[in-house]
Amino acid sequence: MTSPWTIGIIGGSGLYAIEGLEDAQWIPVSSPWGEPSDEVLCGRIGDVRVRFLPRHGRGHPISPHQLNSRANIDVLKRTGCTDILAVSAVGSLREELEPGRFTIVEQFIDRTHGRANSFFGNGLVAHVSMADPVCPRLSEMAAAAIKAAKGKLAKGATYIAIEGPQFSTRAESRLYREWGADVIGMTALPEAQLAREAELPYALIGMVTDYDCWRASEQWGGEAVDVGQVVAQMQANSQLARDAVVRFIKALPAKRAPSPIDTALDDAVITAPDQHDPALLAKLDAVAGRLLRE
Question: Which domains does the chain possess?
Answer without folding.
Answer: 6-293 (3.40.50.1580)
